[in-house]
Amino acid sequence: MYKLMLEQTYNIPPLPPAYNFETLRILKALNKATRSLAEVKGRAPVIPNQGLLIDTLSLQEAKDSSEIENIVTTNDELFKASVDRDRALQGPSKEVAMYKDALHLGYTRLLETDLVTNRTLVEMFQLLKNRDDGFRKLPGTGLQNNSGETVYVPTQDANSIVQQMSELETYINSDSDLDPLIKMAIIHHQFESIHPFPDGNGRIGRILNVLYLTKEGLLGIPILYMSRGINKTKGDYYRLLQDVRDTGDWEDWIVYILDVVTETSALTLELIEGIRAQMAHFKQAVRTNHPKIYSQDLINNLFRHPYTRIEFVMEELGVSRPTATSYLEKLSNDQDLSLMKFSEGRNNYFINMDLVDLLSNGQTK
Is residue 216 included in any domain, yes or no? Predict the structure, then answer.
């Protein structure tokens, strides 16, 4: 079995690939993706608190990216885990919650260095998987389809993995004649083909996508919501990854990724506009109905955390427990707002229902 696996190993090509990426199909798809992504970058600042936008959008991205790898959790569990570390340490919601933290870590490192490094990727892996190791050292890794058939075997030798990742790191951070969106698709394919980590490669690879686009200035902040688009066409995603390995023809893969960028840019724009509209409504209602408790920090809290708790309001607004409790109780009793109180055991959650509907379904109530 192991000998057979070795015979199936894909030879990782040098970067950049020897391929003509200026075909008509690629250029048409690139033009659409570039325009769509520019709209996202231009529209994101309508939410003045950019950290809020990263936190809010990364929750659903975490859920969808994890689901691609069959790590499934409900929105209810996801949102609870985002504000409850004890819950986040249990079941599938743990890894989904850690995805958001890994994205934050990667973005922090990017801001510090203006680079996407292997050290950052390892740190994200360690956080995501709660491990202290890094690149694979032991042979035996093979990827299987739903029938249990081994369809792809990445590099088995630990030294080769280190060398290939070093070359990929250099490529990520070097100048190129290729458009950054095309280069992103190449980087993602190369990373997934090296498959450097014992687990979590798909999720780290998708964080790498958005960090790279941010590094290249195509995004102001890492908010492109790509995983929902990939999740809808998961079969195509894995098939086209393998087709490049089998045939050396990159066109279908590049066009697929560019189309995902176009589609998910439109979704991200809808989410940004939906959040903006909801925040404006919420702000006006609180100003009108509860002027004594209104503050922008309170509004930010309720949109940073679709499920919030008294402790979060205390911490982020610097108020006492009775004051935080009073704020949330008043807002949850307001018919003009969608804040709903939900009790589970000793925990009280205050749920921004319109925001949850927007993130889950792309629409408000």
Answer: yes
